[in-house]
Amino acid sequence: MTKYHHQTRLLAAVDCIVFGFDGQKLKILLIQRGFEPEKNKWSLMGGFIQPNESADAAASRILTKLTGLSGVYLEQLHTFADPNRDPIERTLSIAYFALIDTNQYEKQISDDYHAEWFPLDKIPELIFDHRQMVAMAKEKLRYKASQHPILFELLPPKFTLPLVQSLFEDVFETTFDTRNFSRKIMSTSLLLKQKEKDKANSKKGAFYYKLDKKHYKKNFHNFLRIIPNPNEIV
User: Fold this and answer.
1) Dihedral sign (CA 97, 36, 129, 122)
2) Is residue 30 within 8 Å of residue 116, measured between CB atoms?
3) Could you tell me which residues are beta bridge partners of residue 14?
């Protein structure tokens, strides 16, 4: 087999920033590293890319191994390649971020990795450059959510408008006017109103909605009416 001569071989890995929403706070899923260096310290879920797989396939494999899930929203974020990022050996890491519903899949999270959900404002010390990965993923999530309806990936199959607003407010760290927010979210034609109500938080109750999957896929790239500017308060 022909090879490139006089070139140093590098290791390639992937790391997954897994976001979840528990109904009040946006959270991130972390594990305790099971080997040296930095054993037992908090880390993103990751692993090495195998010779017979792509980076995307490796990220999907690792995410499924941790959560038991497949087909979740997964997007490549950035390649981290500082020569000194791993103290053992030169390793490139391709970071991905994923979006899952914490309530629906909580019981599927593997116990093998001592995984735990942390609010973004209470993240413990992380190994290597993982905190930098998280910060970049957070900014990318806000940018994407201002243009596309990806935040619905974090919600359960049935949800109320107050829950949607709570999610958007936590992601963008701001407060939205309830009437204007509801009007804008309904103007997208992405939601299907249900007959039943959630009466847990008020006597009057709030109607449940479901995501219209057909319109969701069709209008995925046309969502600027909701958050035309990530810093705008509607």
Assistant:
1) positive
2) yes
3) 47, 94
Of 195, 202, 204, 198, nearest to 164 by C-alpha is 198
Q: Which two tokens stand for residue 95?
A: 């970071």
Of the chain, the end-to-end C-alpha distance in Å amounts to: 61
Helix (H, G, I), strand (E, B) or coil at 58: helix
Please, which pLDDT band fits residue 156 given cuts at 50, 70 and 90?
A: very high
Segment 23-74, tens digit of pLDDT = 989 999 999 998 889 999 999 999 999 999 999 999 999 998 888 888 889 9
- Length of the chain in residues, anyone? 234
* The listed CATH number (3.40.50.300, 3.30.390.50, 3.90.79.10, 2.40.400.10) that belongs to domain 11-129: 3.90.79.10
The residue extents of the domains of the chain are 11-129, 150-218
Q: What's the pTM? A: 0.90
* Cα separation, 149 vs 49, whole angstroms: 30
Strands 45-48 and 11-21: antiparallel
- DSSP label of 126: B
The domain 150-218: what is its CATH number?
1.10.10.10
